[in-house]
Amino acid sequence: MIKGQRRKAQYKDLVSTLKSASLTTDRALMNTSDGSVLPGRSAALYHGYVLPENVHVLQENTHVLPGESAVMSANVLSVDSMVLPVQSATVLSAKPAVDTGAIEGQQPSGATSDTRLPEELAAVLTEASCYEAAAGSLFQDLAVLAGQALQGQNVLDETAEVVLKHILPPPRSRHRPASSSASPPTPCTARRQKQWRYRQLKRLYNTNRTRLAEVVLDGAPPMEHAVPLADCAAFYTKAFGERSPADSAPCRPKLTPQGERSATNTLVLPILPGELKAALGKISRKSAAGPDRVTVDHVRGLEEAEVSSCF
């Protein structure tokens, strides 16, 4: 499995686990008898008082400002009369931002008795769909997906992709800018000509060593040049001018390691694990990975039977 797909599957399991835990917590809050709200939870979805009734403040924990009365009161102020601070900098509002009746009753369009969502889940999705966030942010994308879920769409895969897109670092660009020495300057002195040739040979050593051998041994110019059309026509006419033999034509069998002719067609013989091991041993460890991002060290770390099954 590719690394990105494995991480995506792990995130799906995490989302499902958190969703079930959230449903259990919301159900416990809805069943509380005193209407209290746990710390960190919004009071918009629940009725009643923020604090339970008949709460008395201890005398030793009471701090009175100068000029204020220290009279004890057993009454608890309602949400309309007093706003209590919470751990965060946000202050609870006396009026809910979302209609409670709409949250509890909204179901996906076209939902039946078998496909109806639990009331707690429908309330969470409705509240999330009404969340206002900056355009292009993670919360704005999740709010859109919550609205699609209320329409009866399956957005689990899209949710995982959106979250991974925002939390994973952007891929590094492999684009290399074009070299400024594409058109070589005209050397005017022997010293500058030697410096220019050294730079060209160094570039060929890092990019194309085959071309470097042609330049050093055959005296070819460092820069590529166009091949005359007549030479191209003669080369390809010699290579493809004759018709290829038929597939049923007899062919010379391959020699065995003992120097004997093979009695069977070696093209249909399976590739043995020993042959794969020998072929992998000839590949340099510095060989770059292909489009599938599979490296030589990764293939060498597999079992011989696993590699042989691919052939």
Provide structural commentary:
41% of the residues lie in helices and 0% in strands. By secondary structure, it is an all-alpha fold. It has three domains: 3-52 and 72-167, no CATH class; 190-236, no CATH class; 270-308, no CATH class. Helix 1 (3-30) packs across helix 5 and helix 6 crosses helix 7. Residues 35-65 and 70-105 have low confidence and may be disordered.
Give a quick account of the main beta sheet: strands, pairing sense, barrel closure: none
* Gyration radius over CA: 37 Å
Query: How many strand units?
Result: 0
Task: Give helix and strand order, one letter per element, not per position.
Answer: HHHHHHHHHHH
Indicate the overall shape. elongated
Q: What fraction of residues sit in β-strands? A: under 5%
Helix share, percent: 40-55%
Q: How many helices does DSSP assign?
A: 11
Total count of domains: 3
Q: How many angstroms does the end-to-end distance come to?
A: 19 Å
- Residue ranges: pLDDT <50 for 5 or more in a row? 35-65, 70-105
**Average pLDDT number:** 68
Structural class: mainly alpha
